[in-house]
Amino acid sequence: MNVGDDGGSWKDVPIKKGFKNIGGVGDKYNKGNITKVFITNLPPGCNPWDVAEFVKVFGEVSGVYIERKADKEGRKFGFVSFNNVVDVKEMERAINGTKIGGGSKLQVNLARYAKENQGINDGNNGGAVGNGKKIHNPPQNNKGKSHQNHSQVHNTGINSFSNLGKGKLFSDLFKNEAGMPDSNSCLVTEVGPVIEIADEKVAFKDLIGRALVGRCKDLSILRNLNSILADTGIAGVSLSYLGGLSLLLKFEDDDSYVKFMLDHQTWKDWFFSLDPWNCQSLPFERLAWVKIQGVPMHLADNDVLNNIAKHFGKIVRGSQLEAGDCNLSVSWIGLLVGDGNRIHGHVTLRWKNKQFHV
User: Fold this and answer.
1) Whose CA is closest to 293, among 243, 334, 253, 332?
2) CB 91 within 8 A of CB 59
3) pLDDT value at position 249?
4) What's the sign of the alpha-carbon dihedral 276, 242, 194, 288?
5) pLDDT tens digits, residue range 100-132?
6) Domains, the chain, ordered by start
């Protein structure tokens, strides 16, 4: 069985195609001292932005990379880069044993062979990171080939107007005397040529102070927000699609911009987060349909089909297979994914001591 997508597009919703190097102010490369840690036991279907949102309380996150394939023990793993970590061991102890979404306990340790970690003493004190160049090439697998499922993460939080990415519970513990750099910064991993972009190059500067970036709570809100705003009596705003579940809300004047931004009671049911547009880096996200086929008829339950799909992304529209459907051999499921790769894979279903490869 094949799990595929239809080119990453949804009806009535324009979709960005491919992976782009998304830059912003201060984003030529991260200016802070970087510490990279290895993290494993991530829950199935976990995305880079989920990890960034979870670990930001332990320090300022500058980048997240998640490997699509599991390790030899079947565990999902990846790497998280933090800015200006003072004590690596203390941070490891803080993160180890925590859980994302009720999954298995996370295991974290310093990525010993990462170039970012040169000069770090992984004994009792993290030490300082040297001023050497950062890694701009993708992580390598055992055969020396580049992974293609790279992801870019900006630390966007649900608390819309908080100081994003700085951490809340352990910020003092992991902040050096120089303080933390701008949370806009993002570690970019790119396959192919590296294109240098001038630091002062910034797009859509004229929208600063009159545009908001919103991450919708579900697909229905994304597709119907124009009507929702009109029904609520909110005028003077236009929408631009940014990929995934994100929209740019552009206001005609400063007053309507500020009024809407501060009216949390109105927009809290529509958005996970709503942040002022400051030319910041945004995570790459796209919506994709996946076609699940090959599941035996007696196991073609929507819960089973959704369980298969969640291993390839975050479900935004679950399986809706019904007995009255003309075609019960396939089910289409909507996913939110963090890379531009075509989705293709196989799983094994185990039921009553029998196995089914789909």
Assistant:
1) 332
2) yes
3) 94
4) positive
5) 766 678 889 888 777 777 766 554 333 333 333
6) 20-199 (3.30.70.330), 205-276 (3.30.70), 286-357 (no CATH)
